[in-house]
Amino acid sequence: MRLINVAAFLEFETGKTHSDARLLVEIYSPMLEETGFAILSHCWGDPVDEVQYIDIEGLTKMDDAARDEIRGRSGYRKILKCCERAFHDEFLWLWADTCCIDKRSSAELTEAINSMYVWYANSDHCYVFLHDVDGRRLPAQQDHKSYPEFNGWPKWFSRGWTLQELIAPSNVHFFNQNWELVGDKHGQAQTLSIITGISKDVLEKGLSSSNPSVAQIMSWAAHRRTTREEDRAYSLLGLFGVHIPMLYGEGKSAFLRLQREIIRMTNDQSIFAWYWTGRKDIGWSPSFLADEPGCFHDCSSIQRMDVDALQRRHQLARYPPDIKAYPERFQTFTDTNHGIQIWLFLQNDRSSPDLYSVMLACRKAGEQSPIVIKMRRFGSNYSRCFYRHPIAWNDKEPTEFKQIFLPYRDKVTNNLNIRGPLARQNRLPQISFVDIIPSDIVIAVLGGSGSGKTSIIKSLIRTSQEEGADRLTVPTIAVVAYARISQGKRYVFIDTPAFEPQSFEVILRKLFEIYQRSIRLTGVIYTHNVIAGFSQDDERNMQILENMCGEAIGRLRVITTMWDAVDFQFAMEVEHKLMMCCESLVKAGASCQWFINNQESAWGILHDLGDKKVPLLFQKEMEEGMGLWETSALRGFALPCEM
Description:
Layout: E1 2-5, H1 6-13, E2 24-26, E3 38-41, H2 53-57, H3 64-71, H4 74-88, E4 93-95, H5 106-122, E5 125-129, H6 162-167, E6 172-175, E7 181-184, H7 189-196, H8 200-205, H9 207-210, H10 214-220, H11 231-234, H12 237-240, H13 253-265, E8 283-285, E9 302-304, H14 307-314, H15 327-331, E10 333-336, E11 339-348, E12 355-364, E13 370-378, E14 381-386, E15 400-406, E16 430-431, E17 441-447, H16 453-461, E18 480-486, E19 489-495, H17 501-515, E20 521-529, H18 536-549, E21 556-561, H19 568-581, H20 583-588, E22 591-594, H21 599-609, H22 617-623
Parallel strand pairs: 3-4, 3-5, 5-6, 17-19, 17-20, 20-21, 21-22
Antiparallel strand pairs: 1-2, 1-4, 6-7, 8-14, 9-12, 10-11, 11-12, 11-15, 12-13, 13-14, 16-18, 18-19
Helix pairs in contact: 1-4, 16-21, 17-22
């Protein structure tokens, strides 16, 4: 471990040291075990303002101009102030990540990242520098005016690496931008719990005493961010006590590797509980492992359950085979090249022979019922399903204790896949809106979260239907355009955020923007997922669609999706309700169709539209000078700020 010699650094600053002084010293075990040291936790500024290893290593030997440049950096002043504080607290040594790691060495960087949790845990004092706090007290309430980019809290609480830097050390002291003490971890445990979502018990006693579940630890990182995507996984290594190689450039695969390594070390089934309360963009995922920590945002109170707890609550011994006779089946699961081999309790869903409820050995704090997730069988494979609400376990339904393989990749084949976030098969032909021309056949695709609109667009713009195409994708948060040339014509498909009040303005203003450039739409497609059922929001959206189209209503297609994911009878009931709501639309000229998740179905919808171009009513009204919220489309609906 490389440490700053506090006394030598301060002597250098006052000009009392000589050119041979060692500001950085490497200390090895067992001497390290007997060495007391302080440690810095902070947010990196601009890299050019920070002081790196090479700067400190050569500081005593460089010329005055170079030395003065380094001493003028904000990062140098941060190290200096921290050394002064450490000296005041009678520490001889200080560690700071900016200058104590030679990041030119990948081996050293890997060792440091894998050791960092232990280093923070072994420190005698951790100094947290809050560069954006000017008051003399730790903020106790959200202040969106002072911290608009970080959910109303100082930036330090939003960063991925600082999570372990808060939890690992016993003594954590917070300082404001003037290096004035504003609080410590034990005295401010309640406030820190509110800010971070970490239980007061963990903050006061540490991880080993509290023994939180995997899902609970993941939830603490759900809203934190890192500069490098891979660091969202690497910054959690110490919290789980696991080690993996650093492979920068692997993208989200790092978080997948982290979860697989956790599975090797623990049998905690809460690792599968992500999104257990439901999610807005319903659908399914081909992987039972999460894409990123944000998927665990609803797991802050998840606790593990053992066999005895399940036995007492659900009398599982009456289910064949007797779980008490096979405890090792319940308590172990294995990561294989075909998926995660695991024994689970399953209940078949009455709505579909391929849909199952799955009991996990974990529960919400204060409740006895276990967490339940949904999965669907596709041939010999299973996929994770999502609804908009939590799933309940029915003790009266037949239950099966069965060994299955849970996939953690989009598909398992005998072929090697192109890896990396820029794999060619994942690219979509996006174009800028300024490149759309009047001769293009332009289709606006609208729909709620998880409605299947992205599946339609992918079927239209890809040159071939890809086996196992993912159904659950990152929701569109901006209006984007994709292009495809077919039979001598260029088609442009406009993908939009979820069609809901918060997005109405951004969607309609973009459609008006292209109208002003003489671009006319050929059609409007609105998608509805039959899994979602039917709600008042759907009624509202049907009314808005009718009003925004006006005389162009004949260009509207209401498309129902996900027919292959649910029981046919249930889907027909949902479509019947939707058709009743669409009755006035259909009478005015719109039509309703099915999408069966293949290219033929998608292009059949498109060919039915033809290539006629028409203006929408709200576009003409805005051209005449009417405000968006005064148009027929949105008139009578509350402005976003009033909702």
